[in-house]
TrEMBL record:
<dbReference type="InterPro" id="IPR028202">
    <property type="entry name" value="Reductase_C"/>
</dbReference>
<dbReference type="InterPro" id="IPR023753">
    <property type="entry name" value="FAD/NAD-binding_dom"/>
</dbReference>
<dbReference type="InterPro" id="IPR050446">
    <property type="entry name" value="FAD-oxidoreductase/Apoptosis"/>
</dbReference>
<protein>
    <submittedName>
        <fullName>NAD(P)/FAD-dependent oxidoreductase</fullName>
    </submittedName>
</protein>
<keyword id="KW-0285">Flavoprotein</keyword>
<dbReference type="Pfam" id="PF07992">
    <property type="entry name" value="Pyr_redox_2"/>
</dbReference>
<keyword id="KW-0274">FAD</keyword>
<dbReference type="Pfam" id="PF14759">
    <property type="entry name" value="Reductase_C"/>
</dbReference>
<keyword id="KW-0560">Oxidoreductase</keyword>
<dbReference type="InterPro" id="IPR016156">
    <property type="entry name" value="FAD/NAD-linked_Rdtase_dimer_sf"/>
</dbReference>
<feature type="domain" description="FAD/NAD(P)-binding">
    <location>
        <begin position="4"/>
        <end position="298"/>
    </location>
</feature>
<dbReference type="InterPro" id="IPR036188">
    <property type="entry name" value="FAD/NAD-bd_sf"/>
</dbReference>
<feature type="domain" description="Reductase C-terminal">
    <location>
        <begin position="317"/>
        <end position="397"/>
    </location>
</feature>
Length: 398
C-alpha cells in the first residue's frame, strides 16, 4: 500500500483528503492521527462545546460513514514515530506504511507552565484537544474559582464560558495588556471592557510567580506578591508547532516545518499544511494558526500533489466568540502603523501599513468584516481618511 499518506488527524488532514477525492484522485489515501477519534472541529472546544451548547457528534468534520464511502483509510489513536525518506515509509512502532507522497499536518501543541512553578499540578489545564476539554469540563461548577494564565483568545474564550456558568474568574496577563501579540490596543480595550462588564477580573502587566498547591491548585502567586485564590487553572500562553517528526527526518524547520510557496518541504515527496507549517510571503516567512489557513493550505497541497503547481496565497480570516460578542478578523495586521476605529451597530478597527489597508477587526459588526475582507483580498486602495469618513462602507467597494 502506498499512495498518499497524511500524518495528523485535524482540519488540514480532513480538508486535504476531501480535496484529493474531489479532484478525482483514485489512489490510496490514508490519514494517521494520534487522537482516538476521527477529525473534528477545534474552535468550538473552548466555546460552544465547553459551554454545553454543542454535542460531541456535531464536532465531527465528516459523518462516520463518509470516510469509508470515499475510500479514505483512517488510522486513529496511532502515532507516527519516524519517517524513512529514502524508503518512502512512515513507521508507527513496529508497523511500516509506504507512501508515494506524504503530507505532514501535525498541528501545534500548547505551551505548559514549568513544572517547578506548579505547571503540572492535576488541576492545571490547557485547551487544544477534545481530551483536554473533556478533562477540564467537570471543573466548571458555579461558585468555583478559576485563574486563567494568559490573555490571548483561547484564555479569554475560556474565561467567558466560566463566567457564563457562574464561576469567579481572574485573568492574569504578564504583558502590558491582553491580546498584545495579536490585536491593536483599541481592540484590546473593547474586549477588556466586555469582560469587565461581565464580572471577569483582568490583571495586566504582572507575571505569575507560581501556582500554589500540592495535590491541586489552590491559588496563583503573582510576581508582585499578590495571591489569587483558585480551585483550578487554565493556561493559554500560546502553542508550539509540532515539527519534531519532520526535524528528526532531516527536513528543514524554521518556526515550524519550512515549506516553499507551493507548500512542499525540503523533500520533494513531502508536503506540510496547517499550524505546523511556515511559508513564504511578501513580508517574510509566517505561520498561521487558524481554521481558514488549515483548509486553504491543505487544499493547495492536494492540488499541487496532483500537479497544479499553484503558489499558496493565504486569505487570512479568524474569529472569536466571547459572551454575546463575535470578533471577526480579516487580513494580517503585522507591521501596522495606523488604526482607524469606527462605531455603528458594533465596533470595527481598521489596520493600515504605509497607507495600505491590511486588516480589520470587527466586533459585532459582520458588515464591516465582510466589506473589509473583500477590500483586503481584492487589493483595493482605500485610505485611512476614507474609512474614517465613509457614511456607508459599501460605497468604498465601487
Amino acid at each position: 500500500m502506498a499512495g498518499i499518506v497524511i500524518v495528523g488527524g485535524g482540519q488540514a488532514a480532513a480538508s486535504m483528503a476531501a480535496k484529493l477525492r474531489a479532484l478525482g484522485y483514485t489512489g490510496d489515501v490514508t490519514i494517521i492521527g494520534d487522537e482516538p477519534v476521527p477529525p473534528y472541529q477545534r474552535p468550538p472546544l473552548s466555546k460552544a462545546y465547553l459551554l454545553g451548547n454543542m454535542p460531541l457528534e456535531r464536532l465531527a468534520l465528516r459523518a462516520d460513514d463518509w470516510w469509508a464511502a470515499n475510500n479514505i483509510r483512517l488510522m486513529t489513536g496511532t502515532r507516527v514515530t519516524s519517517i524513512d525518506r529514502a524508503a518512502r515509509q512512515v513507521r508507527m512502532g513496529d508497523e511500516v506504511l509506504g507512501y508515494d507522497q506524504l503530507a505532514l499536518c501535525t498541528g501545534a501543541a500548547p505551551r505548559w507552565l514549568p513544572e517547578g512553578i506548579g505547571g503540572r499540578l492535576p488541576s492545571v489545564h490547557v485547551v487544544r484537544t477534545l481530551a483536554d476539554v473533556d478533562a477540564m469540563a467537570p471543573e466548571f461548577v458555579a461558585g468555583r474559582r478559576l485563574v486563567v494564565i494568559g490573555g490571548g483568545y483561547i484564555g479569554l474564550e475560556a474565561a467567558a464560558v466560566a463566567r457564563k456558568l457562574g464561576l469567579t474568574v481572574t485573568v492574569v496577563e504578564a504583558a502590558p495588556r491582553i491580546l498584545g501579540r495579536v490585536a491593536c490596543a483599541e481592540t484590546a480595550d473593547a474586549i477588556r471592557a466586555l469582560h469587565i462588564s461581565h464580572g471577569v477580573e483582568i490583571i495586566e502587566g504582572t507575571g505569575l510567580a507560581r501556582l500554589t498547591g500540592t495535590d491541586r491548585v489552590t491559588g496563583a502567586e503573582l510576581a508582585d506578591g499578590r495571591l489569587i485564590e483558585a480551585d483550578f487553572a487554565i493556561v493559554g500562553i500560546g502553542v508550539t508547532p509540532t515539527s519534531a517528526l519532520a526535524e528528526a527526518a532531516g527536513l528543514e524547520v524554521e518556526n515550524g516545518i519550512k515549506v516553499d510557496n507551493q507548500c512542499r518541504t525540503s523533500d520533494p515527496a513531502i508536503w506540510a499544511a496547517g499550524d505546523c507549517a511556515s511559508f513564504p510571503t511578501g513580508n517574510g516567512r509566517i505561520r498561521l494558526e487558524s481554521v481558514g489557513n488549515a483548509i486553504d493550505m491543505a487544499e493547495t497541497v492536494a492540488e499541487n500533489m496532483l500537479g497544479a503547481g499553484r503558489a499558496y496565497a493565504p486569505k487570512a480570516w479568524f474569529w472569536s466568540d466571547q459572551f454575546d460578542a463575535k470578533l471577526q478578523i480579516a487580513g494580517l495586521n503585522a507591521g501596522y502603523d495606523q488604526v482607524v476605529a469606527r462605531g455603528g451597530d458594533g465596533q470595527s478597527f481598521w489596520y493600515f501599513r504605509a497607507g495600505q489597508l491590511i486588516a480589520v477587526d470587527a466586533l459585532n459588526d459582520a458588515r464591516a468584516y465582510m466589506i473589509g475582507k473583500r477590500l483586503i483580498e481584492g487589493g483595493k486602495q482605500v485610505s485611512p481618511d476614507a474609512i474614517a469618513a465613509a457614511a456607508d462602507l459599501k460605497a468604498l467597494m465601487k
